[in-house]
Amino acid sequence: MASSVEKWVGFGSAVAGFALLWSRLPNRVHDEARHIITSLFPMVLAYFNPYEQITISKYSDDEQFRRNKLFELIAGSCIAINTRPWCSGKHELVFVFHKRHRELMQSSYLRDIILRGHEPGTKSRLS
């Protein structure tokens, strides 16, 4: 049976061999490996992150740079019902919530805001 010193020597030899091979590879391989690692790392973090985020931009993505109607509805509602901690930023609204509350957020909160904004008699800046 190998002692712990022999195991560490074997591990050190493996790390040294990897470092030697890594130093001999061309820079192109380093860049590709870095690209793969940096593109996969956020996906792995998102898998283990229990929070989700919905971002609503103030302006639509079309070429005329018009205001987003949904942004106006939600911003007005956030001010009316005093939920400013959920609304942040001047040009975008960011809602961060736990994954188990996703259905509540989409089916109740956002749906009610949209329906309230389309009710007759409500003052909105959509016209």
TrEMBL record:
Record lineage: Eukaryota, Viridiplantae, Streptophyta, Embryophyta, Tracheophyta
Organism name: Oryza glumipatula
Superkingdom of the organism of origin: Eukaryota
Official protein name in the record: Uncharacterized protein
